[in-house]
Structures are given as C-alpha cells and as structure tokens.
Amino acid sequence: MDTLLITNILAATIIAGTPLLLVALGELVCERSGVLNLGQEGMMLMGAVMGFIAAVTSGSLAVGVLVAILAGIVMSLLFALMAVTLAANQYAAGLALTIFGTGLSAFIGSSYVGQSISGFPKIAIPYLSDIPVLGPVLFRQDLLVYLSLLLFVLAFIFLRYTRGGLILRAVGESPEAANANGMRVLAVRYLAVAFGGGMAGLAGAYLSLAYTPMWTENMTSGRGWIALALVVFATWKPERVLLGAYLFGAASILHLVLQGLGWRSSTELLAMLPYIVTIAVLVLLSCNPARTRLNTPLSIGQPYRPSK
Amino acid sequence: MASTARLELVNIVKQYPGCRANDGVHLRVAAGEIHALLGENGAGKSTLMKVIYGVVQPDEGSVIWNGTPTLIRGPRHARDIGVGMVFQHFSLFETLTVAENIALSLPASEARNTRKLETRIREVSTRYGMALDPRRHVSNLSIGERQRVEIVRCLIQQSALLILDEPTSVLTPQEVQILFRTLRQLSAEGCSILFISHKLQEVRDLCHTATVMRGGKVTGSCVPSEVSVDDIARMMVGSDTPLSTQATPSRPGDVLLSVRQLSHATTDPFGTRLDAIDMELRAGEIVGIAGVAGNGQDELLRALSGERRSEVGRLFIDGKDIGQAGPAQRRQAGVAIVPEERLGRGAVPGMSLVANTLLTAYGRGLVKRGWVRSAKVREYTARIRERFDVRSASIDSTAASLSGGNLQKFIIGREALQQPRLMVASHPTWGVDVGSAVAIHEALIQLRDQGATVLLISEDLDELYQLCDRIGALCGGRLSPLVPTSELGIEQLEQWMAGEFPRSDTPELAAEVIHAVA
C-alpha cells in the first residue's frame, strides 16, 4: 500500500469515527451525572432528520446544525422529565425514547428521502495541512470534525479540572451526599442529560449533513447503541472514548477497503467487523476492576428522589 | 448560659405516613455548649437533625437561630448561616481527593485556588490536632480520617453549630480521645456542638447537658455528669425493658472450627487482604473479634461463609476440609451466617418474611422434591416471629418494612432455629435499640449453651466483654491471639485493635503468646 492510500484510509477513519465520538461524549457526560439514557439512537435520528430538513428548507448548513442540536435537546428533555423529575425507570424511559425517535424521524422525513444537498466542505488549515500524512488526516477535514475535536478537549478539561466537572462527578457518585452538600442534584442531572441530547443531535447532523449528505430512514444504523457500549468499556474516560470512536471508524473503513481488495465472499461478516473490534479492544482495556472503579459513576441508573 | 441561645427549637412536629417522628420537640443549645441528644433508634433524633440541617421542613414549630426565627430552606442555606453537619454515613465522595471534597462545599470563590485551599486545610487540621493530607483520595483514608475530613470541612466553613451524628461509633478508643480533645477546644472557642450518641459513658465524659428523646418526644433532660448511666438509660428506653444480659460461664467442648494460615488477596480495591489467620474455635464458646470496620472483618466473614473459597488445608470443621465448599454445602455442615448488611445480604428487602425464611432454612424440611411446602414455611416463620419477638404487621410483611432491630431479630432467629453448629455474626447489634440488642444477646448465649460455637465480630467493646468467652482483635487483615476475656484488659485490647500485637506465624508461637499474656 502506498502512502496516499494510507493517508486516505486514516482521513476516512477520522470521518467515520466522528459521529460516534460526538454521541459518546454526550452520553459520557450524561452518565457521569448518574443518568443512563438509552435513547441515544432516537435522539441521533431526530437530530439527523430535523437537521437535514432545516438545511434543505433554509439553504443553510449552520441552521441545519443548530436545529439538529435543538431537536436532540428537546428529545433529551422529554427523557429528563420522565427519568429525572418523575424518577421513572431510566432503562425503560430511554428505550421508549429510542423507539419514539426512530418512528417519529421516519414519519417526519418520509418526503425528504432521496433528496440530496451539498454537505460540509473540507477546509484545509493553512500550513498544518501540508504536513505529510498527518496534515491531510487531521487538518483537511470539514468544520464539524474540528468542532468534535474541540468539544473533546473541552469535555476532557471540564471533567478533570473544573469545579463544574467536580460537581458532575460528585452527583454521579452519590446524589445523597451531593444533596447533603447543598448541590442541586436534579438541576445538574438535567443539564447533563440536555448536553447528551445536544451532542446526539449534533452527531445526527454530522451523518445527514456531512458524512452522507442526505436522509434515509434509520441512517444511524446502531451507532447510538455502540456509543452506549463505548462509554461503559471506555470506563467513563473521554480519552478512551476518543480512542474507541476512531477504532470503530478504522474498522468500518477497513471493511470497505478489504471489500475493494476483493474479499467479496462474506460481506455480512465484514460489516460486523467494526462492532466486534471496538468492543473487543475496549473490553480488554477495561478489565482491571480496581482502576475502573475510580471512574465509575456509582449511582448510575438509579433515580434520585429528594426527601421531603 | 447566654440570654439568647445559639439554637432553639420550639414545638417541632414532623409527621410521616404512619409515624409521628417529632411530636412537639423543644431543644435549646447555648453558645459554646456541648449538648447531647440521646435516644433509641426511631426516637426521632435523625428527623430532628434533618430539620435543623434543612433537609426536611417541619410541619409545625419553629427554628430560632441566634434569636431570630429562621426558615432553613436546605442544606446549603443551613451551611451559609453556620450550621455544620458531620454525618454518620459520611457524605464524602470516595473517588475524589480530600481537597476536592472540601472544595465542593465551599463557595466557588474560595474553592478556585486549589493550592491556597490545601494550605488552609493543613492549617486548620494541625491547629485542631487532626492531621490530614489534602491530596489523598478519600477511598484510601481510614474511617477516622474520613470523619476528620468532615469536621475540617465544617471548621473551614466556620460553623457556629456543629452537629455530629454518632461520631464515635466508627472510631477506635484512641481516635475518640483525639476527637473529644478537638470538640472541647471548639467549645472553648464558642462553637456549639450537638452530639448524638448511643454511648452513655461518652456523653457523661464530654457533654454539658443532655436531652433525651423517646417515641418522637422529649422525655427528659439532665446534666450528664450529675446522674448515673443507668438513670439516662432509663429515660431512653422507658421502665419496662431490661438494660442488659449477663452471660454465665461457658463449658467449651471439642474443637469445631480450625483456621490455619488463611490468607486471601482482595479483589476489592478498597478492601483488606487477610494475612495468615490462625484460630481454633471450640463447641460451646463465644469468641469475639474486635476491630475497627474495614480491617478484614468482611473478608473473614466471606471466607467463613463460603462466598469466597479457600485453598485446601486452610479451613476445617470437625477436622474435615471445607475450604472448597460453597455456601450451601457449608450451611449443610452447620454453618450459619449473620452478615453485617441486613437488607440485601441477610434478607431480601422486597420479599416477605415467609420468603426470607425459605432463603436459608430450606433444608429444614420446608422443601420437598423441589416443591415449597407452604404451610410448613409459614409455620416456621410464625415460630421465629413468636420466639424472637419480631414486631411486624404479619409474617407476610416485607423485610424492608421492619425496623433494623426487628429485622435483625428475625435473621438471628431464622439462623438460630436451624440449630447451627457454628454461628458467625457480624455486628449483630449495630444500630439496634437496647431492647432488641438484649434479645439478640440472649439468643447468642442460648446457642452457646446448647453447644454451638459463636463467632462474634463486633466494634462494640461493651458487647464483646459482656458476651465473649475469648476475645481478640483484627487489624489490617491480621488476627491477634484469642485469649480468655477475663485475662485481657481493655487497654491491651485497644492496642491490639491498633495492630500492636505479637505476630503469631506458627500455632506453637501463638500458644506461647497466649500463655505469656495469660
């Protein structure tokens, strides 16, 4: 394989990993507050369809992205109303959200299937993009890829170095203790859930406005579920989510490359590759219980009811 | 006493469904006063504290803070006006550092500069004699150190009233002395302290005044140093409950359980490894293991119950190796376990007492060829309820609906009725009221008199001295020699609890040590 091919594969890896990175970062923050939202798939789909419709009708990609984020947030607030305010079972509420989002997005988007728009263009960053291999891979991407990397850095800093991050982690570890310390548990959880929703919406927009600029039913094809697994196996660490997302991206590109090289015999098996590789690697990484425990939000999945 | 009290509660009423937790409570704490709040479990102390700390709002009555009637809206508001709280189950975050934990309860402006905060933590902790390293993770701290974090946190917030909820129940006697020194220093500087405790002797040593509660009402108040411990106990439990049991001397028989050089690595990052445990327990004796929680008690219990298997050659019952046997096989061999956590490990919270009986007593003819013999189970459960005075609405009540003491009586009764040969009980009277504790102690003594071996793991030294024929201590996963209770002074036991005992690597050496001590 020559350098050009490798460069192209790596660049495609980043692109394929980006939607996963976005949705998984959102879910990571959400779970760190102790709320497990299984509705990622539904929120992503709503983000994808609403973003696409908005972009088509307004003619502006920026409007599309904003609407997608809003759609994700609205969906997540629905979830928060059930799972945080009403303290309903988080698993059931999340599943309901996915089923709801899948159906609603198909309904809303039915008349837009088959339409296409020109998606986000690649922007080459001066000088940096001229570095061999690394330049085209990292610095000749679309705006949303840059945004996803920025969001990763911000999330990393937020969780590790800021008071807000500290409060988030504290609420996720022990909402009772957090309440006793005067923190507003429900408010923190609402914000975390809404952030997760916004990120899922953005991830959806990436699919329908950049990755494949069009709308098809169920176009997330399980990425929301992979993101959920990713967060757990990444032991709630953003840097591992980044790794896992790009690993998934690499494996999904690899299967296309292998097909191109003539491995036509088992397309279905190859299509499974990204899912299997990502989970396998992260399982191996997370099998040390002692280190995992320091990052696990202990209260995850448990509704918190303040005492009256 | 100053003319305006630091805190005054007037006619506080708090009604919960089915229970009037506070029924017209009056309380007055002066500036610089150490005030004890005494009462059994369920007397309404916790509810009253929650009212003061703003966690719950009273239905009636008012809180007067420094002479001004104040509505305390929540924990944050309570803290802002100067109420500090040290919780019984600590409100710390284990995965964060000491400084991070303290930063979380300070206003953002004071918490932003981490280095400055760390210096301040060091200053305050040194000044009050409670050494603390602000950079350590709470998960690596001992229970005593965790309590210091909570106290230092209140001190940094400059609390004018410090509420301590059973602060000594988790401390070694030396740690208690350090704590008391700190509290006296604070009191001398004008900080008021509300001290909640079960332990009457401590209250006599430390507190200026005491208020006693029973059934949600104040039943009396006194100056603790001027009345006897029995007088205070009477106010707490009422007149119809015996205050303690006295064990008769035992007649130990043959060796039942022997443990030889049992070591277990821990899988729990916050656990303790067992380090070459040696012991021989005889039929018809109660052996006590003292020690501060987290020194290997839970690991020892798991090793004995079979939740954790051991290698061959470590655990024997009647000379038969049971190291590889699982919990069910050990139960068949006559081992009964009363774990520390009543709900979740000793009983299934959401299931009825009947179902919980079946959980361990299934071997007593309650199941036939896979079919549950419902009538027999109910009869068995009814027998437990009657014999051990378990107060529940019926045998169909869920385990979670019982009070701690009643559920513990049920669990002890369930195990005792199976006539075990070895009963391992971990902290059986922790958080249990005096009446239930007496019943539990009687059940254990009765088991012993029937020829069973009882291994009592407890932090309560009074309990251990009252019941045990032999006694020892566990520290850092190592077990001290087990010597006759009458031959071991409490000071010596305290040293052993702190790990200062001779290492007994071989049984012969252990025998020598026991000899030397005796």
Tell me what the structure shows.
The complex is a heterodimer of chains A (308) and B (518). Chain A has helices at 3-32, 40-58, 61-85, 90-109, 134-139, 143-161, 163-173, 175-180, 185-211, 223-233, 238-260, 267-285, 289-293, and strands at residues 122-124, 140-142. A two-stranded antiparallel ribbon of chain A has the order 1-2. Chain A contains 13 helices and 2 strands; from the N terminus they run H-H-H-H-E-H-E-H-H-H-H-H-H-H-H. With 308 residues, chain A is mainly α. Chain B is α/β, with parallel strands linked by helices and 518 residues long. Chain B folds into 2 domains: 7-237, Rossmann fold, CATH 3.40.50; 255-343 and 412-517, P-loop containing nucleotide triphosphate hydrolases (Rossmann fold), CATH 3.40.50. Chain B is 35% helix and 23% strand. Chain B has 18 helices and 23 strands. In chain B, the strands form 5 sheets. In chain B, strands 13, 16, 19, 20, 21, 22 and 23 form a 7-stranded mixed sheet that branches. A 6-stranded mixed sheet of chain B has the order 6-7-8-3-9-10, sandwiched between helices. In chain B, a hairpin with a 2-residue loop joins strand 4 (60-65) and strand 5 (68-70). Chain B is globular, with a radius of gyration of 24 Å. Chain B starts with 6 loop residues before the first strand and ends with a helix. The model of chain B is unreliable at 505-510 (pLDDT under 50). Chains A and B meet through helix 7, helix 8 and helix 13 of A and helix 2 and helix 3 of B.
Strand content of chain B: 15-25%
Which percent band covers the strand fraction of chain A?
Answer: under 5%
Number of domains of chain B: 2
Shape of chain B: globular
Biggest contact: A-B, 22 and 31 residues
CATH structural class of chain A: Mainly Alpha
Uncertain segments of chain B = 505-510
Q: Reading side by side through the largest sheet of chain A, how are the strands ordered?
A: 1-2
* Main pleated sheet of chain A: 2 strands, antiparallel
CATH topology of chain A: ABC transporter involved in vitamin B12 uptake, BtuC
CATH superfamily of the largest domain in chain B: P-loop containing nucleotide triphosphate hydrolases
> What pattern of helices and strands is seen along the backbone of chain A?
HHHHEHEHHHHHHHH
CATH class of the largest domain in chain B: Alpha Beta
The tally of beta strands of chain B, per DSSP, is 23
Number of strands of chain A: 2
Share of helical residues of chain A = over 70%
Helix content, binned percent of chain B: 25-40%
The domain tally of chain A reads 1
- What is the CATH topology assignment of the largest domain in chain B? Rossmann fold
Radius of gyration of chain A equals: 19 Å
Q: Which CATH architecture of the largest domain in chain B is right?
A: 3-Layer(aba) Sandwich
